[in-house]
Design a protein that fits this description.
The protein is of the alpha+beta class and about 400 residues long. It is built from five helices and 25 strands.
């Protein structure tokens, strides 16, 4: 009898040990894939580190590193929270493989985007034996072709380093973040996942200075064409939006995180240069702007300049907005106030800021002089993934603020 009891105990322990191994998230590099339109997959890499019993997943896109702390198991289910975008990855770990879904919590009843990952694979795309001799390095005019036949002019900027292609595509709303990929036998494949939306771009060169291809997201597929152009530029970001005729100032009065109304009439803004940022916690380009603005404000607030954020969130719900904005302020150690404008949408921006005309993008940044008059309105934000374009923006931004302070 004792013999059988010992055998049962050993089998139980072996089974428990097996389960523990099965549910263990291994440290090191993983290659993930998220389903996008056209039955395609957007690959990305992530690194797993464990400290003091807690795991952190770090998403890798070119130079970008996005940390997702607080990884846990709920029973047999792996849970990777993506707090910044109110999303989560849930799946089942089987030794060196994960199968699950990327779920957007802000979408009621979201069934999720299929997700898989394999341990120990450090290649985003599998290398081909004979990659194309064409190179994508440099600037490109890029057209996105809509189903209606409309075209949107954008700028691509890319470079190749040790067979790895990195870069981004700039639009007048912002950029496509840190794209990374490699050459195929006739073109280039690029992808990115920073926690919000997976991107996959498949390009084919038609000659040395032209390519065509498709841009895949979870929402659909967009055709694109590119032409090499070292002088490629976007439309002037200061020419796209402004104030309606007859207006010089903004009259908003909106609640902050404590429910207190904030406006440009408040004493802290009197006689100062003020920068108003229209943003959303869900917007990657807004996060890029905040990553720049938050430390910039701390370094410059003593010069007589203030910043106000006006956030438009996924839900017109004060409790939801307070949670999202609080997490945003904590993440970037933001010292300036962020007011709640309402739910995302042009009509809500028009309601909160009725003087503003031709609003089209989050973020939109408004520059106000010491007398409270709007002097410039900047549409969109192209962040660090855009290299020289980002550096040029910072220079223009500082020059503009300096000129307003000197008045």
């Amino acid at each position: 009898m004792i013999k059988y009891q010992l055998l049962f105990l050993l089998l139980l322990l072996a089974g428990f040990s097996s389960c523990q191994k099965k549910n263990e998230l291994r440290e090191g590099i993983w290659r993930g894939e998220l389903a996008v339109s056209g039955d395609r997959k957007a690959p990305f890499l992530f690194d797993v580190k464990k400290e003091a019993g807690s795991a952190t997943v770090t998403l890798i896109n070119g130079e970008e590193r996005v940390k997702l702390p607080g990884v846990t198991f709920h029973g047999d289910t792996l849970v990777i929270p993506i707090v910044a975008y109110d999303a989560v990855i849930k799946g089942f770990v089987n030794n060196t493989r994960i199968d699950g879904n990327f779920i957007r919590n802000y979408i009621d009843g979201d069934s999720g985007v299929p997700f898989t990952a394999v341990y120990g694979v450090a290649e985003r795309f599998k290398a081909v034996a004979k990659p194309t001799p064409h190179r994508i390095d440099g600037k490109w005019d890029v057209l996105f072709l809509s189903e209606k036949g409309d075209t949107t002019r954008n700028v691509g900027i890319f470079k190749t380093d040790r067979k790895v292609v990195t870069g981004s595509i700039l639009t007048n709303s912002g950029d496509l973040r840190f794209l990374e990929g490699s050459y195929t036998d006739n073109g280039v494949q690029l992808s990115a996942f920073g926690g919000l939306s997976p991107y996959f771009i498949d390009l084919t060169f038609t000659d040395d200075i032209r390519f065509e291809g498709n841009f895949y997201t979870t929402r659909g597929t967009t055709q694109l064409v590119g032409t090499k152009n070292d002088g490629a530029v976007l439309a002037d970001a200061y020419s796209l939006a402004g104030l309606k005729p007859g207006y010089e100032t903004l009259s908003f009065s909106l609640p902050d995180l404590e429910g207190n109304k904030g406006s440009l009439r408040d004493e802290r803004y009197r006689g100062k240069v003020v920068i108003v940022s229209i943003l959303g916690s869900w917007c990657p380009n807004c996060l890029d702007e905040m990553a720049f603005l938050a430390p910039w404000y701390e370094a410059n607030k003593s010069r007589g300049v203030e910043v106000i954020g006006i956030a438009f969130e996924r839900k017109n719900d004060e409790a939801y907005a307070k949670r999202a904005i609080s997490q945003l302020k904590e993440r970037y150690n933001t010292g300036y106030p962020i007011l709640f404008g309402g739910a995302v949408g042009k009509e809500n921006v028009a309601g909160a800021l009725p003087e503003l005309e031709n609003f089209s993008s989050y973020p939109t940044t408004i520059f106000i002089d010491k007398e409270g008059k709007v002097r410039k309105v900047h549409t969109g934000f192209n962040g660090p993934a855009t290299g020289l374009f980002y550096e040029e923006f910072i220079e223009e931004f500082n020059d503009l603020v300096n000129s307003l302070l000197a008045e």
